[in-house]
Design a protein that fits this description.
Layout: E1 72-74, E2 77-79
Antiparallel strand pairs: 1-2
């Protein structure tokens, strides 16, 4: 369980992060490249903060699902499902064609 430490509101710094993804496609053979670009921007927010404490608990599930479950509330707990798309590679032997060679006597 993780909680935010008790600090004075004047010294509490909350980093706000956002991620953006740009996907392009082009046909290549046998090469895969993945790049992550991080940009940071400083911004001062002058707003009164409320003090509170949260507890975060990660529960491993590891079950195959058909669709991503919705965020739900259980009593005073918000349950946010985390799904991961896993690529499954399957190898099959397929007879593509036959080459028939026949001897003809002349």
């Amino acid at each position: 369980m993780t909680s935010i430490p008790d600090t004075e509101p004047e010294t509490l710094v909350l980093p706000l992060m956002t991620e953006r993804l740009a996907v392009t496609r082009r046909r290549i053979e046998h090469v895969v490249q993945v790049a992550t670009v991080t940009q940071e921007r400083g911004l001062r927010v002058d707003e009164a903060l409320a003090h509170g404490r949260i507890e975060i608990e990660w529960m491993p599930i590891g079950r195959t699902i058909g669709a991503v479950p919705l965020v739900r509330e259980e009593d005073d707990t918000t349950v946010m499902p985390v799904a991961e798309e896993v690529v499954v590679v399957e190898r099959r032997l397929v007879l593509k064609e036959e080459v028939r060679i026949r001897r003809v006597r002349c």
